[in-house]
């Protein structure tokens, strides 16, 4: 079904034109990037619980698989569930660290944009503005999380009747665990390693893109 409506003969011809050496190097780099991502995740989780790298690598791969077959990127939740199995850390808190991972990725994208925007030859001005709006949105999101942590905005909900019993209480408890995961970076002793692994991760993605372009001619 994936190739429905395509000329299979032409598709196979195009595949045969691919230079396999850079292609397989790119595949190897992508697998290595999953190891780097699992290592960074391990550093983020460390203040709560030390989870072996191979377990987090497996959870990362499960997450990618889930994103490929499930809607709304539910693979991220599957990834958190897999990592938290038989662990002291809750699924909600683990999911919070997954969100934190994505925030770090967004920060790297914003950093790349900040470097490229002044020199990138935009053919369409709206694209430049879109990148600026995206960067501002990420900044405001991080600012909101920081303010919510500093002023303990979640505590306000504890006084509301709905959140004091039943389903509301459960929702609040889950929300607090997720927020704890998102803000766990404040407890880390691995700040430098987290930054370094993030830079390495995006360096791998850049190299992989170059190799795939070279493989496809």
Automatic annotation (TrEMBL):
Protein name: Uncharacterized protein
Gene Ontology terms: cellular component: plasma membrane
Membrane topology: Multi-pass membrane protein
Record bears the keyword Amino-acid biosynthesis: no
TM segment ranges: 21-39, 51-72, 103-121, 133-151, 194-215
UniProt source species: marine metagenome
UniProt KW keywords: Cell membrane, Membrane, Transmembrane, Transmembrane helix
Main location per the UniProt record: membrane
InterPro entries registered for this protein in UniProt: L-PG_synthase/AglD (IPR022791)
């Amino acid at each position: 079904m994936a190739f429905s409506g395509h000329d299979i003969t032409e598709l196979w011809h195009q595949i045969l034109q691919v230079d396999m050496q850079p292609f397989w190097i790119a595949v190897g780099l992508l697998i290595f990037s999953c190891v780097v991502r699992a290592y960074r995740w391990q550093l983020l989780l460390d203040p709560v619980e030390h989870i072996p790298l191979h377990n987090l690598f497996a959870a990362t791969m499960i997450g990618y698989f889930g994103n490929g077959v499930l809607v709304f990127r539910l693979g991220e939740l599957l990834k958190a569930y897999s990592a938290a199995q038989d662990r002291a850390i809750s699924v909600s808190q683990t999911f919070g660290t997954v969100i934190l991972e994505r925030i770090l990725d967004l920060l790297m994208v914003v950093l790349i944009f900040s470097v490229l925007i002044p020199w990138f030859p935009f053919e369409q001005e709206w694209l430049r503005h879109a990148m600026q709006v995206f960067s501002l949105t990420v900044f405001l999101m991080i600012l909101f999380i920081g303010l919510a942590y500093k002023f303990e905005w979640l505590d306000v909900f504890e006084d509301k009747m709905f959140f004091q019993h039943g389903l509301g209480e459960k929702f609040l408890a889950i929300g607090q665990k997720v927020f704890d995961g998102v803000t766990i970076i404040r407890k880390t002793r691995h700040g430098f390693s987290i930054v370094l692994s993030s830079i390495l991760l995006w360096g791998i993605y850049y190299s992989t893109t170059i190799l795939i372009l070279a493989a496809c001619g």
